Amino acid sequence: MSLHLADVLHQFLPNYQQHHRMSVQQQKACQHILQCRTPAMGQQLWECEQCHQQQLVSCSCRDRHCPRCQGQRTREWLESQADNLLQAKYFHLVFTLPHELNVLSQFAPEKLYQSLFQATWQTLSTFAARHRRKPGQLGMTAVLHTWGQTLTQHIHLHCLIPGGMLNGTGRWQAIEKNYLFPVKALSTVFRAKMLRALRERQLEVPEHELLMSKQWTVFSKACLCKPETVLRYLGRYTRKGVLHESRLQKIDDEAVSFCYRDYQDGNRRKIMTLKGDEFIRRYLNH
Fold this sequence. Notes:
Layout: H1 5-19, H2 24-35, E1 43-47, E2 54-58, H3 70-81, E3 90-96, H4 104-107, H5 109-129, E4 141-147, E5 153-162, E6 164-166, E7 172-174, H6 183-200, H7 208-213, E8 217-220, H8 227-239, E9 248-251, E10 255-262, E11 268-275, H9 276-284
Antiparallel strand pairs: 1-2, 3-5, 3-8, 4-5, 6-7, 9-10, 10-11
Helix pairs in contact: 1-2, 1-9, 3-8, 5-6
């Protein structure tokens, strides 16, 4: 039997609402997920043209946070994006913020995320402009994720970058190597750009000396060589929600169990069990 996020909300949301404050956006998302594919969303009457058998089908909510509504919308979005892809390889870089900055997302999320996009783009643009052989202008598609595999706060930016640059005359020049820029050098510049962007927005940076001494993380994934692969990545990182429902393993009277990948332990697949209230708190945090 397949488990759905709506099952978790049916079980634990009433108690959660008694002890936690929810934003208007969170309340609407929960309401939509609970009502998705039920008569509350309206119904359609389907009839077979050959045998004339009829069937009532409940409508979906189409909320971007509802995991049951992303399949068809993802396919439609990918079809519209196919013509925009360049016939070139793509680089996939992930810029991750240290967890010491997570607190800023609680009271100044807009400024924090604006700073992240700005710092990432400035970092890549700086390296592109100083390229020894072919300096130029990069392109980038960037997607913000605020969650990790266990639904905790893990703020990072997925960047898909075409494997080439426009030179000063607007001519395309391909990047031949299988990596874009050295990730350690990127990390150092990214740290400086990010802290500067936060200061420009008058945000007080917690534990500044610790953050300056830490090695920030920029991760380079395998180069994507086929347009079809790039499309799959775009669908995965831009359209998926916080938790794919196939990861739900068990719901009982007190807790929710779900699977996750432990990247610190060889990418092993593990099971985590959380109290119902804690699962909902983590989910709604994103």
